[in-house]
Amino acid sequence: NNINKTIKENEFKLFFFITLTSLIILFLGYLISDILGLGTAGIMVSVIIAIGTNFISYFFSKDMVLKSQKAIPMSKEAYPEYYSMVQQLCEQNNILLPELYYIESPALNAFATGRNQKNAAVVVTSGLLKQVPLDEISGIVGHELSHILHKDIMVMSFITTLVGCMSIFASTLRNASTYNRYDRNNNNNGSSLAIIVGAVAAIIAPFAAMLIQMAVSRSREYMADATGGLICGNPKLLAKALYRISHGGSEMPTANSAVAPLYISNPLKNNFITNLFSTHPNIDDRIKRLNEM
């Protein structure tokens, strides 16, 4: 019942964010049209951009995330023990076997991506495979399978790709404002107010995307830890793995603020700013909760 409730909540979140981001893109498109004096043509372009952005974010998010993180397909022959462990967890918990990938990195980290069980992928770092015992890795995999089961990856993969698209769109808006400021000969340009609002919107858009990530991430991590502990059969295995990750380093050179929420542990450099805006709960608190289970 809890799983079904979570799935419905995530499906509603996806619908909400598609609607919200479409309205944001249409509003930014209107500003660009006003600044450049494009009229109805500019509005139509923003409608196409809104539809295209959501389409790409939903159907191609997994491939874009895997490519951005330089993930490499994992064969059963190269990693037989790990592959068999994941396969066994999936069979025991009635979950479809996801595509398996790895990233060449000494960091200890992992994430899942995709829009549903049929389109899911689980990615681990080579450092995790080399430095963490297989039974503890089962806890990490259980955590990621939980995200797949709850359809967390559907929402987060969509938002991850959407953040990148919104950043590009915001950059276009900022350039349009600059173009208007220096184009003295075009009398059809928008008002000064539109220029100011456009510049502000270009600055706010990336922060709005970041706040969206924060709104949906922290609670899902606690739930994925709890369910992941049950999937692997022993919550303490996941607790031990998280302890190793917290002391072994999880910084990823390929990671950025858009993909960071997907990882089991914050992959960005640990400093005051990244901690302040981190989408991940405190790892010591997560370990404590798992041990209490």
Number of strand elements: 4
Count the helices. How many?
Answer: 11
Category by helix and strand content: mainly alpha
What's the average pLDDT?
81
Brief synopsis:
With 293 residues, this protein is mainly alpha-helical.
Write a concise keyword list for the protein shown above.
single chain; 293 residues; mainly alpha; 4 strands; 5% strand
Task: Write up this protein.
The protein is mostly helical and 293 residues long. It is 68% helix and 5% strand. It has eleven helices and four strands. It has helices at 2-36, 40-59, 61-68, 80-92, 126-131, 134-149, 152-182, 192-232, 235-248, 272-276, 283-292; strands at residues 72-73, 99-103, 110-113, 121-125. It has a four-stranded mixed beta sheet, with helices on both faces. Strand 3 and strand 4 (121-125) form a beta hairpin. Helix 1 (2-36) packs antiparallel against helix 2 and helix 3 crosses helix 7 (152-182). The longest helix is centred in the C-terminal third of the chain and has 41 residues, at 192-232. The chain is elongated. The mean pLDDT is 81.
List the helices and strands and how they pair.
Blueprint: H1 2-36, H2 40-59, H3 61-68, E1 72-73, H4 80-92, E2 99-103, E3 110-113, E4 121-125, H5 126-131, H6 134-149, H7 152-182, H8 192-232, H9 235-248, H10 272-276, H11 283-292
Parallel strand pairs: 2-4
Antiparallel strand pairs: 1-2, 3-4
Helix pairs in contact: 1-2, 1-7, 1-8, 2-7, 3-7, 4-6, 6-8, 6-9, 7-8, 8-9, 9-11
